[in-house]
Amino acid sequence: MNLSESFSSITGDAVFLRKFVSNDAPKVFQMSLENGMRQWIPDQVYADLQEAESVLNFLMQQYESGKSPAETPIVFGVCIKESGELIGHAGLSPLNGKVEIGYAIEDCQQRKGYATEAIKAISSWGLSFYRLPEIL
């Protein structure tokens, strides 16, 4: 399913999830260097801005691929609804023939319920849009 034709955003009460854009690379790079990322998702810590740009380009290409998250990662930026500020990411990715959820929220925005809301929103969307039987 091609997301360009059917996707605008996933909206929660305090956050919304949107497709990444090229201009997100500096913020994604900055967030990748935080302690939480280094500890919990070290493969998403980028050496430099160019590596962050390369990863974002790959993720953006997946929106057009027509593949499901059982085949390729489908990852969105998590933004604060009130300001539009990008504060993290949430996505669905393949894992041993199933689909798992992954997420990260920048350190200064943690413990505010944003991750919980993003997880609920993308889970509900993924189960419906892709007709997934479950999400790990």
Key features of this structure:
5-stranded antiparallel sheet; alpha+beta; 5 helices; Aminopeptidase; 5 strands
Write the layout of secondary structure elements.
Elements: H1 3-6, E1 10-11, E2 15-18, H2 25-32, H3 35-40, H4 49-65, E3 74-80, E4 86-95, E5 98-105, H5 114-129
Antiparallel strand pairs: 1-2, 2-3, 3-4, 4-5
Give a verbal description of the structure.
It is a single chain. 38% of the residues lie in helices and 23% in strands. It has a single domain, classed as Gcn5-related N-acetyltransferase (GNAT) (Aminopeptidase, 3-Layer(aba) Sandwich). With 136 residues, it is α+β, with helices and mostly antiparallel strands. Helix 2 packs across helix 4. The chain has five helices and five strands; from the N terminus they run H-E-E-H-H-H-E-E-E-H. A five-stranded antiparallel sheet has the order 1-2-3-4-5, sandwiched between helices. It is globular and about 35 Å long.
The CATH topology is: Aminopeptidase
CATH architecture: 3-Layer(aba) Sandwich
Count of beta strands = 5
Q: What is the H level of CATH, i.e. the homologous superfamily?
A: Gcn5-related N-acetyltransferase (GNAT)
Give the termini distance in whole angstroms: 21 Å
Percent of residues in helical segments?
25-40%
Assigned CATH class: Alpha Beta
Give a short account of the largest sheet: 5 strands, antiparallel
Placed side by side, the strands forming the largest sheet appear as: 1-2-3-4-5
Query: How many helices?
Result: 5
Q: In what range is the share of β-strand residues? A: 15-25%
Overall, the morphology is globular
Total number of distinct structural domains: 1
Order of helices and strands: HEEHHHEEEH
Rounded Rg: 14 Å
Mean pLDDT: 92
**Parts with pLDDT < 50 across at least 5 consecutive residues:** none
Helix/strand-derived class? alpha+beta
